[in-house]
Model the fold of this input.
Amino acid sequence: MSTHRPDRNLALELVRVTEAAAMGAGRWIGRGDKNAADQGAVDAMRAMLDTVAMDGIVVIGEGEKDEAPMLYNGEHVGAGGGPEVDVAVDPLEGTRLAAFGQPNAIAVIAASERGSMFFPGGAFYMEKIAAGADAIDAVDINATPTENVNAVAKAKGRRVTDIRVVVLERERHEQLIGELRQAGARVNLIRDGDVAPAIAAARPETGVDLLYGIGGTPEGVISAAALKCVGGGIQGKLWPRNDEERQALIDTGYDLDRVLMTDDLVQSDNVFVSATGVTTGALLRGVRYVNDGAITDSIVMRSRSGTVRRIEARHRLSKLTHFTGREY
Done:
């Protein structure tokens, strides 16, 4: 572990990064072009990252260098001279959501001490269950959905019919959704983007109790970083898509039966996370445009202090363009 520990609240600098990404994607909301929305977010995030005083390495990014021109795994980011950190980025979590103007698209970044983030290798998906501090110790990813929603209801002192579970709307989840409904839980289906619901599960004002199902492994690591800050946690198991991927993971040393807890996904207790809303959802409001300006809504978190800030920022676009040389 590096001796260059991040002592200041790096998240207060990272919020400028997610605000820029959200505004970079914002002009593409509802225009049906998810690639353009994603590119707008990536370009804006990349440019702003270069101004942050840190020595970062992207651990969770856009893929391998040859497949991702920006923010690829292993890329060095930051202005240098600051703390040495692992960085997990999703410039636009929920590209389809943004493209079609649907809720819960966010721009998110997490940073923690160098060497502390789990690297998923070739594991693209994982089973996961995320909950707040009052329920995470009651759930078990190896238990049945019925057992888990009953345990959560008991832990929260509520009826099962009051438990609200977010699940990605996928064919692979048909049995999960059916069992959750049979158990009495209220299932909220989403098309994409499970980081925001994972964070929302730890925030009582959001109306989300659990995130459940199979989703992206990178998103699981980012969710773990955020949940270390806001309270609660996540459990996950790597989920290979086919026999070839399963064997490749086994050959590279991954234990597919291992339950990955929050501390396995992010080992550090000094974690920084910033997320900014692109489209309005349970966690954050989306980018709103006014005359010569935009309003962004962000949540900024640090695990060591337990501080969670909500930041509403008003941006003068003409001044931003003049200052940065970029159109917003």
